[in-house]
Each structure stands twice: as C-alpha cells, then as structure tokens.
C-alpha cells in the first residue's frame, strides 16, 4: 500500500466517523472568526466561545476595540490564556484593518499573516472558512494525529506537516480534512488516553499498535496513613 492509498483509507474512515465535522468557534462574519481564532491559541474552543458570547455583543467593529483602554479589553478576555498579549494584538490588528483595509478582514493569505497575532494556522482557518479557499490549518490535534498515523514524521515542523498533508490530500478535500482531523484528535485520538481499542484506524497506526501491546498501567495511589 502506498502513501496515497493509505491516505485515502484514512480520509474515508474519518468521513464515516465525523461526516459533519466543522469549525466549532462561534462567529457571524470573517472579523469575528479572525478574533476567535486568534484567541484560541493555547486555549480550548469551548472557553473561547464562552468569552466571545459577551465579547462579540460589546465589540462589533474594529473601531469598537480601539474605543476602550487596553486594560479594559484585557479584563474582557481575562479567562483566555495569554490574554494580555492577545488583547494588545487585537487592538494592533484592528488599527491595521481600519488604516489599510477600510475595516474589513483581507481576503488574501498575504494580507492576513501581516496582522498581529495572526500566524499561518489562523490565516489558513480564515481563508478556508470565511472565504472558501481550500486550506489545511495545522493545530495541535492535526499535528498529533498526522504523526500518529504516519502521514508525517514525528520530528516534522508544523509547516512540514501542512505541506505533506497538502500533497497527500486532494485539494478539494483540504478544508473538510482539516475539520475531521481536529474532531478525530479532539474526541477520539486524544493526547492522553487515545481510544486505541475502539479505533478503526488501529491497523494503520504504528503508535496505536504499540500502545495495545504495551498498555500504560494507571498509577496507583498511595495508601492513606
């Protein structure tokens, strides 16, 4: 079985497991999506959605984020990890949107990655979801699953993982594959305690088969005195 054939089996199985995989960040437009993805770095989508439920009621446009002191915005997103740097980046991002893009989120990859706080992953998410351009954004779930299934090497960088997935996956399936890999990693192939005994991809997963041969025993608690 070559790499393309293996990838096809994986994609078909992911489609069967998660046919309705989608972006779980709640948003109404490209601007809200950009802010939500920026906030999601090193933070769960669940926490981001709790914060943006009120944040997006208070701040509708880039101008709104610049109309308040930085410390007020920091307090509004305090539950988010790295909230101080993210608040600063949001205000800088909004200033660029107003000065250079008439308050709109740019619909090009080059325009997005120049925005403070917007890296390659965020740009790919916005391009694919907001503007319908096929892309594979590599977050922690996509990175972990790709390496466990040997679609990428264990020591590959995020960029290398993205490039390998782009070669293996048909372009028209990039965006959906991104969502399904995230769902697979978030709900099945978790970082801790992956569901290897129930995994339909076990035969294609070297790490999973190794885990089954040498299961990790739960730590025993010490006896109380």
Automatic annotation (TrEMBL):
Matches recorded under Pfam families: HHH, HhH-GPD
Cofactor: [4Fe-4S] cluster
UniProt keyword list: 4Fe-4S, DNA damage, DNA repair, DNA-binding, Endonuclease, Glycosidase, Hydrolase, Iron, Iron-sulfur, Lyase, Metal-binding, Nuclease
Binding of [4Fe-4S] cluster, residues: 189, 196, 199, 205
Coiled coil feature spans: none
Principal EC category: lyase
Single GO molecular function: class I DNA-(apurinic or apyrimidinic site) endonuclease activity
Note on cofactor: Binds 1 [4Fe-4S] cluster.
Reactions listed under catalytic activity: 2'-deoxyribonucleotide-(2'-deoxyribose 5'-phosphate)-2'-deoxyribonucleotide-DNA = a 3'-end 2'-deoxyribonucleotide-(2,3-dehydro-2,3-deoxyribose 5'-phosphate)-DNA + a 5'-end 5'-phospho-2'-deoxyribonucleoside-DNA + H(+)
EC code: 4.2.99.18
Domain HhH-GPD: 39-187
Family in the record: Belongs to the Nth/MutY family.
Record's function text: DNA repair enzyme that has both DNA N-glycosylase activity and AP-lyase activity. The DNA N-glycosylase activity releases various damaged pyrimidines from DNA by cleaving the N-glycosidic bond, leaving an AP (apurinic/apyrimidinic) site. The AP-lyase activity cleaves the phosphodiester bond 3' to the AP site by a beta-elimination, leaving a 3'-terminal unsaturated sugar and a product with a terminal 5'-phosphate.
HAMAP family found in the cross-reference section: Nth
Protein name, UniProt field: Endonuclease III
Organism: Paenibacillus yanchengensis
Gene: nth
């Amino acid at each position: 079985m070559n790499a393309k054939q293996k990838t096809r089996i994986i994609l078909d199985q992911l489609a069967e497991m998660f046919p309705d995989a989608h972006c779980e960040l709640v948003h109404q437009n490209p601007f809200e999506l950009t802010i939500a993805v920026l906030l999601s770095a090193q933070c769960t989508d669940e926490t981001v959605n709790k914060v943006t439920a009120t944040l997006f009621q208070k701040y509708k446009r880039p101008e709104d984020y610049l109309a308040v002191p930085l410390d007020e915005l920091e307090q509004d997103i305090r539950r988010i990890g790295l909230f101080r740097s993210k608040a600063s980046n949001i205000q800088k991002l909004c200033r660029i949107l107003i000065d250079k893009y008439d308050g709109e989120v740019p619909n090009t990859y080059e325009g997005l990655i120049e925005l403070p706080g917007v890296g390659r992953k965020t740009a790919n998410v916005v391009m694919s979801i907001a503007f319908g351009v096929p892309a594979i954004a590599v977050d922690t779930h996509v990175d972990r699953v790709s390496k466990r299934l040997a679609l990428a090497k264990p020591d590959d960088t995020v960029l290398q993982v993205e490039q390998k997935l782009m070669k293996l996956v048909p372009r028209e399936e990039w965006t959906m594959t991104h969502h399904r890999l995230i769902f697979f990693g978030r709900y099945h192939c978790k970082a801790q305690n992956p569901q290897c005994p129930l995994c339909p991809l076990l035969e294609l997963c070297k790490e999973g088969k190794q885990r089954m041969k040498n299961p990790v025993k739960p730590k025993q608690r010490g006896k109380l005195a």
